[in-house]
């Protein structure tokens, strides 16, 4: 599927004109000689003990496969959540402005006049989380706040991108947990969006840096919920990322991975 969707699409101006490798040919199960970078600063406060144990076990598997594990620094990654939710909400506010019920998409029924139709369409068509993001995004893009929030977030994003580029100069991929905790129940954190957003701490960094990342199951919690690791690679180097993910999955099939209790 990736081989089909990757590369240049003449009907999509946002696609890149780069060569598409044969990704499947890289799935050799071989991680020998690879350098795996581990940002130890991200393995501290807020990371569930069971998740940490599973990910550390996966790092050990890579060592056994012949990979070299090295420490890397991502000093601005700690700002990723704040930066991401400023930029993402600003983009949501801008992009979703077009859904007004006039041109396409959902339209509220029986609106007596145009302004009422606009209001009812957006009130009925968007859920609570979407509305929250539109409101936050409109705020950070508004006059008097653009420089303080959106512009500053873009500047820190540039620093995060630079951190990843520097770290990936010294290794083939960066390994982190995918999430600081195991899965929470559906709707459990709806009333606490900040706690819900904090679970994105590891994954949003790849989005901000614009680099490819893949999530691979690496164990089970004491409650039987899956724990996953994340591999992040250089720009346009999905082939190496997938090769390392495949090597790990072959060496540690999911049904044979240990169940780790949170108290371990």
Name its key features.
2 domains; alpha/beta; six-stranded mixed β-sheet; 264 residues; 12% strand; Amidase signature (AS) enzymes
How are helices and strands ordered from N to C? HEHEHHHHEHHEEHE
Spatial extent as radius of gyration:
21 Å
The low-confidence runs, each spanning 5 or more residues with pLDDT under 50, are none
Beta percentage is 5-15%
SS class: alpha/beta
Overall CATH class of the largest domain: Alpha Beta
Mean pLDDT: 90
CATH superfamily of the largest domain, by name, is: Amidase signature (AS) domain
CATH topology of the largest domain: Amidase signature (AS) enzymes
Largest sheet: 6 strands, mixed
Total number of distinct structural domains: 2
Fraction of helical residues: 40-55%
Structure in words:
It contains 9 helices and 6 strands, in the order αβαβααααβααββαβ. Helix 3 packs across helix 6. The relative contact order is 0.19. With 264 residues, the protein is an alpha/beta fold. The mean pLDDT is 90. A 6-stranded mixed sheet has the order 2-1-3-5-4-6. Strand 4 and strand 5 form a beta hairpin. The protein has 2 domains: 167 residues, Alpha-Beta Complex (Amidase signature (AS) enzymes); 92 residues.
């Amino acid at each position: 599927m990736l081989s089909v969707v990757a590369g240049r699409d003449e009907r999509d101006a946002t696609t890149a004109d780069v060569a598409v490798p044969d990704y499947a040919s890289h799935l050799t199960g071989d991680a020998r000689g690879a350098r795996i970078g581990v940002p130890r600063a991200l393995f501290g406060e807020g990371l569930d003990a069971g998740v940490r144990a599973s990910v550390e076990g996966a790092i050990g598997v890579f060592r056994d496969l012949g990979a070299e594990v090295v420490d890397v620094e991502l000093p601005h990654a700690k700002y990723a959540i704040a930066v991401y939710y400023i930029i993402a909400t600003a983009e949501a506010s801008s992009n979703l402005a077009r859904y007004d019920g006039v041109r396409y998409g959902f339209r509220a029924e029986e609106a007596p006049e145009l302004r009422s139709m606009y209001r009812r369409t957006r009130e009925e068509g968007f859920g609570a989380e979407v509305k929250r993001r539109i409101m936050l995004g409109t705020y950070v893009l508004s006059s008097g706040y653009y420089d303080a929030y959106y512009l500053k977030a873009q500047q820190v994003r540039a620093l995060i991108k630079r951190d990843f580029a520097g770290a990936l100069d010294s290794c083939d991929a960066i390994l982190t947990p995918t999430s600081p905790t195991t899965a929470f129940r559906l709707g459990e954190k709806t009333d606490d969006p900040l706690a819900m957003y904090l679970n994105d701490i590891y994954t949003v960094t790849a989005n901000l840096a614009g680099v490819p990342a893949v999530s691979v199951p690496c164990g089970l919690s004491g409650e039987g919920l899956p724990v996953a690791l994340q591999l992040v690679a250089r720009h346009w180097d999905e082939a190496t990322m997938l090769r390392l993910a495949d090597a790990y999955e072959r060496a540690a099939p999911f049904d044979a991975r240990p169940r780790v209790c949170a108290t371990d």
